[in-house]
């Protein structure tokens, strides 16, 4: 059983909703990435998404785009991301880490090399926004063979065929994008989310995390009624943007703790 599957099994046994958090590797500075990862766990995160900086992050709103731009000014690339995961694993061997990004950096080093390096670093899976499931059979199989999960996005516009493809090739959990837009945009219609998640569950037996637009404890708690996990990214980046670097770790820990408390209330 993968670390992600084990985490979700434990959450289910405790009747708890998972908290999946996102930061961009290298933002607001490379020296803060691993301390921020630990702060997220200390605040109550169950799964960490570590964004791989990319110059054209098409699914991201302006907040995460700015994070990518800041990280790229430090020349952060995949090699650095693997290094952050490796350092995190020196003191945390239990919290799943999912690398989230786009196809270009993976294609540049090659899928086989990506899988090998991710496994050696201690990562647990990947979300590749522009890898459609119908083109991922071999990659998904190679990931599973190396005990890594390939996690796919589903959206309000996803067809039944696409949902079935995700059910076939995905592992770990499925990520439902609650909005027809980019990260951090708009507000969530929780009734619509409930209907669509219910329809997805007819085909996908994996845990379902819901993200895009979750900004506070109240929204997280509402989504938790229908999801196995809530995913928060842009709002955490905004916390980082609102404080000096020396306060970044504490700000992220405090914010995450507030969301965890709301989920557990």
Structure description:
It contains 12 helices and 9 strands. The chain is an alpha/beta fold. A 9-stranded parallel sheet has the order 5-4-3-2-1-9-8-7-6.
Task: Give descriptors for this structure.
single chain, 265 residues, alpha/beta, TIM Barrel, nine-stranded parallel beta sheet, 14% strand, globular
Compact description:
The chain is built from twelve helices and nine strands. By secondary structure, the chain is α/β, with parallel strands linked by helices.
Q: Which helices and strands appear, and what pairs or packs with what?
A:
Elements: H1 3-13, E1 18-24, H2 33-43, E2 47-51, H3 62-73, H4 78-89, E3 97-101, H5 103-109, H6 111-121, E4 125-128, H7 137-145, E5 149-151, E6 153-154, H8 160-169, E7 174-177, H9 190-201, E8 208-211, H10 217-224, E9 229-232, H11 234-241, H12 248-264
Parallel strand pairs: 1-2, 1-9, 2-3, 3-4, 4-5, 6-7, 7-8, 8-9
Q: Within the CATH hierarchy, at the fold level, what is the topology?
A: TIM Barrel
The number of domains is 1
Q: For the record, give the distance between the C-alpha atoms at the N and C termini, rounded to a whole number.
A: 29 Å
Order of strands, widest sheet: 5-4-3-2-1-9-8-7-6
Strand content: 5-15%
Judging by the overall fold, what is the CATH architecture?
Alpha-Beta Barrel
Number of strands: 9
CATH superfamily: Aldolase class I
| Rg | 17 Å
Poorly predicted tracts of residues = none
The CATH class name reads Alpha Beta
The class by helix and strand makeup works out as alpha/beta
Overall helicity: 40-55%
Please outline the major beta sheet: 9 strands, parallel
Q: How many individual helices?
A: 12
Mean pLDDT: 93
**Could you say which overall geometry the principal axes of the C-alpha atoms support?**
globular
The secondary-structure element order is HEHEHHEHHEHEEHEHEHEHH
């Amino acid at each position: 059983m993968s670390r992600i599957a084990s985490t979700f099994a434990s959450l289910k046994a405790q009747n708890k909703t998972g908290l999946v958090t996102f930061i961009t590797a290298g933002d607001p500075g490379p020296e803060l990435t691993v301390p921020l990862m630990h702060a997220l766990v200390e605040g109550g995160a169950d799964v960490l998404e570590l964004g791989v900086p990319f110059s054209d992050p098409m699914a991201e709103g302006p907040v995460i785009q700015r994070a990518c731009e800041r990280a790229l000014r430090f020349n952060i690339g995949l090699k650095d991301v693997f290094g952050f995961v490796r350092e995190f694993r020196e003191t945390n061997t239990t919290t799943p880490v999912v690398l989230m990004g786009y196809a270009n950096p993976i294609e540049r080093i090659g899928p086989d090399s990506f899988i090998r390096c991710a496994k050696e670093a201690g990562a647990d899976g990947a979300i590749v926004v522009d890898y459609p499931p119908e083109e991922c059979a071999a990659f998904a199989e190679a990931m599973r063979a190396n005990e890594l999960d390939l996690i796919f996005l589903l959206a309000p516009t996803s067809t039944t065929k696409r949902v079935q493809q995700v059910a076939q090739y995905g592992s770990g959990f499925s990520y439902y994008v609650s909005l027809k837009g980019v990260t951090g945009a708009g507000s969530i219609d929780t009734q619509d989310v409930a209907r669509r998640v219910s329809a997805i569950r007819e085909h996908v037996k994996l845990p379902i995390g819901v993200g895009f637009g979750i900004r506070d404890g109240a929204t997280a708690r509402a989504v938790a009624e229908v999801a196995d996990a809530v995913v928060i990214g842009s709002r955490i980046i905004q916390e980082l943007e609102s404080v000096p670097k020396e306060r970044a770790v504490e700000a992220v820990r405090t914010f995450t703790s507030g969301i965890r408390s709301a989920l557990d209330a």
